[in-house]
Amino acid sequence: MSIRGDAPPTGANQVSAMFAALATDRLDPVERFDKIAASSEVAKKQAGSIRPALLENWGQMSPHWMLDAGMRAYEFLRLADLHPAIYNFVISNVPGPKQSIYFLGARITNMHPFGPLLHGAGLSVTSLSFDDHLDLGVITCEHLVPDPTVVAGLIEEEFEKLLERARTLDPSAPRLEG
Questions:
Q1: What digits encode the pLDDT tens for the residues 73-94?
Q2: What residue spans of the chain are helical by DSSP H?
Q3: Closest Cα partner for 177 from 127, 133, 131?
């Protein structure tokens, strides 16, 4: 989650992590959405109690070579295999500009966002909104989730179900295109 607040963008990312339940036990898409929103709100409040620069400052307290050596030892000794993963799914949401963007004079119509696939996670989904639409990038660990296109299709299916339910509540709700 962004920890930049209302400060003007500096060009550098300022992000943190939060844990939220995804309500995968809920079949109804609206109920699932509401449950995820509530869980996310609690997680944001908890994360907001930590000073935004705390993690960044903590990372700068130790020499970079020490952190690098520790990470290499963790990987080499396969220590992650000795304890349960604390997460298995990484979701990133990147709000982009609301207007059209261009590259060398050509209007960009789609982007293919990809976020981190960290050790212990089998799936990473990144969304990027810009120019009034949303693009998704799905990457997976081939050992845990062999075919990311299946996951992408299921996301689209579930999103369509959510929109369909929203239309029953509000007939003027937008239609999914593409």
A1: 888 888 878 877 777 888 888 8
A2: 29-48, 54-61, 64-76, 148-169
A3: 133
Question: In terms of DSSP bridges, do strands 89-95 and 102-103 run parallel, antiparallel, or are they unpaired?
Answer: unpaired
Q: Is 124 exposed, middle or buried (0-12, 13-18, 19+ CB in 10 A)?
A: buried
Beta bridge partners of 129: 95, 134
pTM of the model: 0.69
Contacts of 47 (CB under 8 A, 6+ apart): 1, 3, 16, 17, 18
Return d(Cα 101, Cα 52) in angstroms, integer: 30
What's the rounded Cα separation, in Å, for the pair 148 and 156?
13
Express each pLDDT in 33-57 by its tens digit.
Answer: 899 999 988 888 877 666 555 555 5
What gap in Å lies between CA 135 and CA 111, rounded to an integer? 6
